Amino acid sequence: MGGGILILLGRFFFFLLLLAITACRPQGPRLFQLATLPEGNICRIAILPFRNETEYISGSPMVTRIFSTQLNQRGNFSLAQEGDIFALYQQLHIRPYQEPELEQLRIIGDRLGVQLIIIGSIAEMTDTGGVEQKKPSLEIKVDILEAKTGKSLWTTYHSRHGDQFRKFMHFGMVNSSTELVKIVSQEIIDKWLHEGMAKCSEQQK
Amino acid sequence: MPLEDLSQGRNGVNSEVTSYLASELGKKGMFVIPQEDIISFMAHNRIRWVGQLNSYHISQAREELGADLILLGSVTQKATKPLITLGVTLYLIRTDDGQNIWSNSSGLNLDDLRRILGISEPETIDELLPLVASNALEGWPENLNAAMGKLPVLEIETAFLQPKYVRPGQLVSCAIKLRSDWQAGDEPKVIVKIGDHEQRQMTASPNRNYEISWSGQGIDGRYPVSLLLLWPSGRMKESYIGSYFVDSQPPRITLDLKGKQLQGSLAFRDKIVIIPRMLRREQLSNWRISIQNEAGQEVRKEDGEGNMPPSFTWNGNNRQSQQTEEGYYQAVLQAWDLAQNLSTTTSEKIFFSRTPPAMILEAKRDDQEMHVDLQHEGKTPLAFWKLEMRNYKGELLKIVQGDNLPAQVNLPLSVASIAEGIECQIVMEDLLGNKTKKNIVDLVQLTKPKEVLAEGTTGENEFENDKWVAEF
Questions:
Q1: How many C-beta atoms surround the C-beta of residue A64 within 10 A?
Q2: Which of B127, B131, B138, B76 lies closest to B103 in space, CA to CA?
Q3: Which tens digits make up the pLDDT trace of A106-118?
Q4: Considering only CB atoms, which chain A residues are within 8 Å of B87?
């Protein structure tokens, strides 16, 4: 009788533990493949300024630039210069927080000689701080568009908090937004590479 | 290049981190171009933004500064409260081909560096900087290969193509300013390619400006426009400039009216709703709707830019917000599409009436009965009428109602005392809701003379009309 209760209690605590583990486990990026990526090797990509929907003032340049560093590093892609994109935005009268229209996307794609255009938006971005010393958080959506048509091919959502990386006590936690943006970007790019986006080789460039 | 400091807002510069990185790269055996030369280069080339460079300026840096590589970057975070934090992102650009050959980013916060009892923890940004810089420079390329190709400089400085929508025969203009200079004899032909086949050479003006205008002909549709550069060597470069639309068709619009059907035409008293329906969906540049009377005079108008509202409402008032006269009106809608094709749509006739029904009442009597003859005078048919007769005590003697006139109401004198008088109340309402209400204190007084009671008349009897409130 006593043994049975112990087994029941054991099962109950095991279930609680399982629930706690699965509930806290961070989710990976959610990728929606609306169409297949263009055939052949993709080497040249333009990353347009991310649209910032938060109150984090420097959110757009920060996320855009860190995402670029990671895409360049992990996929070896040839990225269009931010200065060239900025010049085209000025020519086409696009404000940095505006999403270009289809026709403008085609002009940008053609002028920069890119096969893909990456455009994103920041839905949530906070830094360490506050009374509770909250860790940074980031939620972004990144779209891969076909430069020739402006058509959306892949859409990715990802969200992370700095304390999701805790290993023991305060160890492992991500405490700066820069690091969190870097990790989120890496996870998204790794997902893309895993799902079939091919890296670019030095010869292909 | 100086690092942009995003923590300082728009176009902030961080010279401390820039200097520190310059000294670290010097230790790696690289020759770093002095900051004064960089500042002078930026001023000479009118570079107003740090943290980014366009392809043209990258090639100029190679030419003017002799730079093989450019390190661009930004300070993404710099804060002392609540905890000291520093973040940087760096790109290394090869000036030969404008490729980013290396990039990295790093950020640290005091919480990342907590030590037992806080011993040797950094307390200032300056103490945190070496750690962040060391992390950021991790993976710095050992083998800095020469470029594989030539820098693809963005050759178009400005490009205008206008207007976006044209009617057949209307002029389309294209103006281009190119960035590159070519040696004499190596200048390319500058051509615009319209659609798939048509090509036209552009006229050159000083300072590498080129322009051309042409008449937008052909079947309706979208025409892509590209710029072609053709060098004497046979080399060719094509860049997409934009597109324009030829549109020869005016918008096709019908007007639906929501009102009451009355004797074959629409009629209203309070308001009429006019719904424009586009038979072919397209964007409008502007529109104008007016209400015209039978003489073609405009009594009311409204206009706007862009697409029309889903519906318009007219309450019978003119532009001075005064009630218009009873009669027939028409709504006239003019709409211009983006190519300025004009369409004019005229609605069916609308009858407007806010006049209360006019009535003619005649009372007679003989020895046995009192006879009341009721007639209606007005353009709008009646919806109903009601007549009540009461004695001096207010007791109901007779009530009659109907929906058309003329009619005769007879009251036997056996039920009423002529000497005490007979009060009569008549209510009439037409199909548009216009109402007339009349109260005759003593009907017996009317039995001798014939009286015509119509709109606006005053008699010795009390005559009460409803008050109509204008509401356009």
A1: 24
A2: B138
A3: 999 998 989 999 9
A4: 176-179
Q: How far apart are CA B91 and CA B137, in angstroms?
A: 10
Give the pLDDT band of residue B121 (cuts 50, 70, 90): confident
For residue A140, give the nearest of A117, A123, A126 by alpha carbon.
A123
List the single residue in A with minimal CA-CA distance to B242: A107
Mean pLDDT of chain A: 83
At residue A3, the pLDDT reads: 57
List chain A residues with CB under 8 Å of B7.
Answer: 58
Half-sphere exposure of B240 (CA within 13 A, CB side): 23
User: Do the chains contact at B49 and A57, CB–CB below 8 Å?
Assistant: no
Cα distance between residue B433 and residue B471, in whole Å: 15
Q: Evaluate whether B385 touches B374 at the Cβ level (below 8 Å).
A: yes
CB contact under 8 A, A86 and B52: yes
Q: Which chain B residue lies closest to A43 (C-alpha atoms)?
A: B99
Q: Is the dihedral of CA A21, A24, A29, A31 positive or negative?
A: positive
Task: Convert the pLDDT of each residue in B410-459 to its tens digit.
Answer: 888 776 677 777 888 888 888 888 888 888 888 877 776 444 444 444 33
Total beta-carbon pairs less than 8 A apart between chain A and chain B: 139
Q: Concatenate the DSSP letters of all residues of B333-350 into one string.
A: EEEEETT--EEEEEPPPE
* Distance in Å, alpha carbon of B201 to nearest chain A alpha carbon: 20
| Cβ–Cβ under 8 Å, residues B243 and B193 | no
